[in-house]
């Protein structure tokens, strides 16, 4: 398998997370598509620097989260870009209204967390182990545990406040 | 929604449709040939335009400085030039911040630390910008009447009453708006930095 094929296979394997990150860090479809493009672009650009110290998936998650943060930084300073392929990224929000409604509630909850907690919780939701989360985020595994317990508390408080 | 419910929604949320490929060989070729323009780019048109306008205005005041025949007007002229140059520097600093090379290989927490620190610096620059802009407004008003009417401001009836009343009102509302706009974000950013500090120390 050559480099391009390996890359495509790796993207295919992790595309769900790329889409979900893009959905959580943006507020409209255009921005979401831009972020997906940007993540793929940065992954490809850095693909040679992947040193196999961590798993490919861990490395991809880290890059994807970092790109989302940089995108936040420059989101108000948009420049015109040539889309890599408009057609391919023109996927549809084919969810039914209940799922969409649930997603909106999800967004409300997760948007109340700070960016550190948001990153940790997304990785947790994506079934990453404490060790993997620690490696991606750059904190110790025990701190991941502490953080997750606090996040759970925070979420409960939010529900309580709403009621 | 508790964490388990969030997980349920997360698992069921929208993935790209099966039949569509997110990336193709063709797209990789385009990226390699740099046909794709990264959005993490170092262009910030408002700042660049702002710097150009400030420098042209400073140059204009410098050229017509000989028209300023009293010490008061000359003082206003020098102040305006200084303010315009300072505003250019402030904009330039904002631009430089945006130009810091991107390293997407860092751990997420390290990126967040940089992001939050830069955000706080940006807020400081914005505050400086707001104060300097108001001072500039006053000094430019003084100069404009001389440049365009040929009359010193002291000769224009009611000028001080109107300009300062409106200026004060403007400053009052503007500063309140700025404070309200930034307060929450500023607080959140400071909390995030504290959080990162705490967990980095324990790391």
TrEMBL record, chain A:
Instruction: List the transmembrane segments.
Output: none
Domain named RNA polymerase sigma-70 region is located at 11-73
Q: Which UniProt keywords apply?
A: Sigma factor, Transcription, Transcription regulation
Q: Which GO terms describe its molecular function?
A: DNA binding; sigma factor activity
Q: Name one GO biological process term.
A: DNA-templated transcription initiation
What PANTHER family does this protein map onto? RNA POLYMERASE ECF-TYPE SIGMA FACTO, RNA POLYMERASE ECF-TYPE SIGMA FACTOR
Listed name of the protein:
RNA polymerase sigma-70 factor, ECF subfamily
The organism encoding this protein is Flavobacterium xinjiangense
What are the leading ranks of the lineage?
Bacteria, Pseudomonadati, Bacteroidota, Flavobacteriia, Flavobacteriales
Automatic annotation (TrEMBL), chain B:
Transmembrane stretches, start-end = 43-66, 72-95, 128-147, 159-179
Keywords assigned by UniProt, alphabetized? Membrane, Transmembrane, Transmembrane helix
Q: Which domain of life is it from?
A: Bacteria
Q: State the protein's name.
A: Uncharacterized protein
The upper taxonomy is: Bacteria, Pseudomonadati, Bacteroidota, Flavobacteriia, Flavobacteriales
